[in-house]
Write a structure and sequence with these properties.
The protein is α+β, with helices and mostly antiparallel strands. It has helices spanning 103-128, 154-168, 178-186, 253-256; strands at residues 31-35, 47-48, 83-84, 87-96, 173-176, 190-192, 198-200, 206-209, 230-236, 239-243, 247-249, 257-258, 263-275, 281-287.
Length: 296
């Protein structure tokens, strides 16, 4: 039946954030989201991280001074002080000035869309350093490469990175693309814990299948690009995410209006600072179609 009168405009389906990702992993204690509740944005220009001692601990024989081969207690390792830049994550919405309707509702649309996609932007920067290539990021070429540039199976890659994390003596994270996570789940490597976070079945390590980790984002600097069906998987220590409240700019409709083009543009944005202590940083190349271990 044909309707009568002009078409009625309705909003499309509400954009939703992915089920799993770096921000979603804050359901576990290994990723902390720290809101800016200190007034001025003190870290808006970046921050230097002061890590906790990175050593995994040592044992000592308290009677060794009386033996024939006395030993001494170890000195602590030198602590790196990595510097991270703060990122502005934003999403713009533009429409003809005749089509925006209610101004407050139009501004709210940009905020809703940003909430769905901001995690991918943060992940992409954390992995690839697109905006700040000089700031530490997973694929900056630093850290360890246990298998060099030799591709291995998904199961072997996760097992190798579990060993790297174990050497730190504390909890860590595994970062991979959604495609690798799907393959790992089919190999019974992953399970969903009660708080809705992906973990390895063996050690319970939190796994982040970030949308921002997909494609060539994970290729480490200085290494050959991953071939088809291949991608890099990373291990790190715990991650902190600092972020501001969402702000819609400009503040008024008059400021948002481009009179020459007769369009209105609002941008929903917020600041992010994502860091880890860089003490654990390891990468393994995965071939999703292989069942073989590296070097076998």
């Amino acid at each position: 039946m044909t309707g009568i009168g002009p078409l009625w405009r309705v909003d499309g389906p509400l954009p939703l954030a992915p089920q799993y990702g770096l921000l979603q992993a804050a359901r576990s204690p290994v990723v902390r989201i720290i809101p800016n509740d200190e007034g001025p944005l003190r870290w808006g220009g970046g921050a230097q991280i002061y890590p906790y001692p990175p050593d995994a601990g040592h044992g000592f024989d308290s009677c060794s001074v009386y033996g024939s081969t006395p030993t001494e207690k170890e000195e602590g390792s030198e602590i790196d002080l990595p510097i991270f830049d703060a990122l502005t994550v934003y999403l713009a919405e533009t429409c003809s000035s005749f089509g925006i309707g209610n101004d407050a509702e139009f501004r709210a649309r940009a905020v809703a869309a940003l909430a769905a996609v901001e995690g991918r932007v943060v992940e992409r920067e954390f992995m690839a350093g697109d905006v700040f290539p000089g700031s530490p990021h997973l694929a900056d070429g630093a850290g360890d490469f246990p298998n060099g540039t030799t591709a291995t199976s998904v199961v072997d890659a996760f097992a190798t990175l579990e060993e790297v994390i174990a050497d730190s003596g504390r909890q860590g994270l595994i970062h991979c693309s959604p495609a690798v996570a799907t393959k790992a789940a089919s190999e019974l490597v992953l399970e969903t814990s009660s708080n809705g976070v992906l973990r390895t079945i063996g050690c319970g390590t939190v796994v982040i299948p970030g949308q921002g980790y997909a494609g060539d984002a994970s290729d480490p600097a200085g290494a050959p690009a991953a071939a088809a069906k291949e991608s890099w998987v990373y291990a790190t220590g715990p991650v902190d995410v600092r972020r501001s409240d969402v702000e819609v700019v400009p503040g008024t409709l008059a400021e948002a209006l481009d009179r020459a083009m007769n369009v209105v543009t609002y941008r929903a944005e917020r600041y992010y600072l994502v860091d880890w202590d860089t003490a654990v940083q390891a990468a393994v190349l995965v071939d999703r179609c292989s069942d073989e271990c590296a070097g076998s």
